[in-house]
Design brief:
Blueprint lengths: L1 H10 L15 H4 L22 E7 L14 H10 L4 E3 L5 E3 L2 E6 L5 E6 L13 H13 L6 H6 L1 E8 L2 E6 L17 H4 L19 E6 L5 E5 L13 E2 L2 E7 L2 H9 L5 E2 L4 H8 L4 E7 L2 E7 L9 H9 L3 H9 L3 E3 L22 H10 L3 E2 L5 E3 L2 E2 L1 E6 L6 H14 L3 E6 L16 E9 L4 H8 L2 H7 L7 H10 L5 H18 L2 E3 L1 E10 L2 E2 L18 E2 L6
Parallel strand pairs: 1-11, 19-20, 19-21
Antiparallel strand pairs: 2-3, 4-5, 5-7, 6-7, 8-9, 9-11, 10-25, 12-23, 13-23, 14-21, 14-22, 15-23, 16-17, 17-18, 24-25
Length: 555
């Protein structure tokens, strides 16, 4: 989940535009980019690299640590999923599935989370993992310097318990929408780290986990070499083809260097290609091209107390006034999907029956007329002597914010609505230091969904969280009820109906003008097989353990 949050921070910024046109990216910000997987194989591979070696490269510079508690570089974060295991891991649909915990349960009152560990799982040095390691890891995390939202997760925890060798229990001190994945950290070995200074321990450069690959070497030129863990608890899956037996990873200084390496056939897989580059590779039979939604939607958050926006029929009219397909074509060259809310396509809680409102300016004008708004002699909608004018705040850090804002402005102008665009400093949101202008009715930003609906409730349910992440709070008793109902169950089959109903209810209410999801444009060389799971919203790098090389490929 940490990787996904860092991805959102990077991609919502204007620095992401490097994939659109050449531009220098500050090195400190490159560390926030989610891993760009770069692998070498086939006839272009150098002789010194074996055919079963996967070469992994990321943007952000050389790694600084391989301790999951301290990592801030994308190369380290990608490797962490291969060296370590979590209690519960996220699959390609962002659904939790067993990892170190073979099963878990939540008490009826939602205050106790119990995880049952797999017996016989061993660290790479042969020592068995137990609940003591889990408790030790959580103690480390809790005592280390935390940042939101992780800090709030731990604020809700009264204690954790280890009733036996293979049971770990989290006890909350108050009802809280704790998602399973939010607290399921990568587990560290107590027997190696107890009593160590976490900032200076040699473990940071010589990690030992329980994952499908074990640390082998950190070379003088800052390459990290991993080898397959033959004692991995899942064993060898019955798949055809040659296994990846070694990973060689390093950090690149720029995104352009990574993309260039791929296009020169020096690497096999790359994420976040520019649109022109993607068009090039998808026509080349040597490659497989992937495009899939990234985990947020561009949207205009509404101030529902503003007199012009209070009426849901007005908000529905505004949604039908915006030409989303044209916006996607003009800004993303067609690589995007119209949004029906903050629920991301491809996730288990997404309701495919919820369809975005179609662009229909005539119907928008009808709804506005029914509410009493008529065009005056100046071509502006007017009601009781008041013109339909409002201020739209624009997040200046969001990529393409100016172009999106201008298209919204133009579409509203066409139906008689006048909008003043004002840049608004997003770090001040929720801080109490800067308040939005009193006439503001909307805020153009992006709503991120990083793990599951329980995390999404921070934006749409929890009033305490909304003070931090939103300018204007949103209140809807039915939405609150569905959030609360869904989080009471463990099994996805039980939770899914509540969240899919929530999706429909939230979109019907139009608390925001939902625009579109951006796409991740990725590609890989055809020599690798069983790779599709990685090319999804969660980008689960742990699935690399199941990759195979097609030895008959002429790629």
């Amino acid at each position: 989940m940490a990787m996904l949050k860092m991805l959102a921070h990077y991609l919502l910024s204007s620095n992401y535009k490097e994939t659109r046109r050449p531009r220098r990216i500050k090195s400190w910000f490159l560390g926030l980019l989610i891993s760009l997987l770069l692998v070498g194989c086939g006839e272009q591979r150098s002789e010194e690299v074996a055919v079963s070696t996967l070469r992994l490269g990321t943007v952000g510079g050389p790694p600084r640590t391989l301790n999951p508690l301290l990592m801030d570089r994308s190369v380290s974060m990608a490797l962490a999923q291969l060296i370590f295991n979590n209690l519960v891991r996220m699959n390609e649909q962002l659904a939790p599935e067993p990892d170190l915990a073979k099963s878990w349960e939540i008490s009826e009152d939602g205050m106790v989370y119990t995880f049952y560990l797999r017996p016989g799982v061993r660290f790479h040095d042969g020592v068995e993992l137990t609940s003591a390691d889990v408790a030790f890891t959580y103690d480390l995390i809790r005592n280390y310097k935390l940042k939101p939202p992780r800090e709030s997760y731990f604020d809700a925890v009264a204690r954790w318990e280890t009733p036996d060798k293979y049971t770990f229990r989290i006890v909350l001190n108050k009802p809280f929408g704790l998602s399973i994945t939010s607290m399921c950290e990568q587990i560290l070995p107590k027997h190696l780290l107890e009593g160590q200074d976490i900032n200076t321990t040699s473990f940071n450069r010589h990690p030992i986990g329980t994952g499908p690959f074990r640390f082998k070497e950190w070379t003088a030129d800052n390459r990290i070499i991993l080898e397959r863990n033959t004692d991995y608890y899942e064993g060898k899956p019955p798949l055809q083809g040659k296994q990846i037996t070694q990973i060689v990873a390093q950090g690149y200084e720029s995104l352009s260097q990574s993309c260039s390496a791929f296009l020169k056939s020096e690497t096999d897989v790359v994420f976040f290609l520019g649109q022109e580059q993607f068009e090039q590779v998808k026509r080349d039979p040597r490659f497989k091209a992937y495009s899939f939604p990234i985990g947020w939607t561009y949207a205009v958050e509404y101030n529902l107390n503003h007199p012009l926006i209070k009426d849901r029929a007005i908000r529905t009219a505004l949604a039908q006034a915006i030409n989303i397909p044209e916006m996607i074509q003009k800004i993303e060259n067609g690589y995007g999907a119209a949004s029906s809310g903050p629920f991301v396509p491809g996730t288990w809680w997404y309701n495919p029956e919820v369809k975005p409102l179609e662009y229909n300016p005539a119907r928008a004008q009808e709804l506005l007329a029914e509410a009493g708004w008529q065009l005056n002699k100046n071509g502006v909608l007017e009601k009781a002597g008041q013109e339909f004018r409002f201020t739209l705040l624009v997040n200046p850090a969001m990529r393409e914010s100016k172009r999106i804002a201008m298209l919204v402005y133009q579409d509203f102008f066409k139906i008689g609505i006048r909008v003043e665009l004002v840049s608004f400093d997003t770090p001040a949101v929720g801080s109490g230091n800067v308040q939005p202008p009193p006439g503001a009715a909307g805020y153009l930003t992006a709503f991120c969904n990083m793990a599951e609906p329980a995390d999404l409730s921070r934006d749409w349910h929890s009033q305490e969280w909304q003070k931090v992440v939103k300018i204007w709070p949103y209140k809807n008793p039915e939405v609150d009820r569905l959030f609360d109902a869904g989080k009471r169950f463990v099994r996805i089959e039980e939770r899914q109906p509540f969240y899919q109903q929530l999706h429909q209810t939230l979109y019907n209410d139009q608390p925001a003008l939902f625009l579109y999801f951006n796409y991740n444009l990725s590609a890989m060389r055809s020599g690798f097989e069983n790779t599709d799971r990685l090319f999804s919203i969660s980008m689960p790098f742990w699935t690399i353990k199941d990759w195979r090389i097609n030895e008959g490929s002429k790629d």
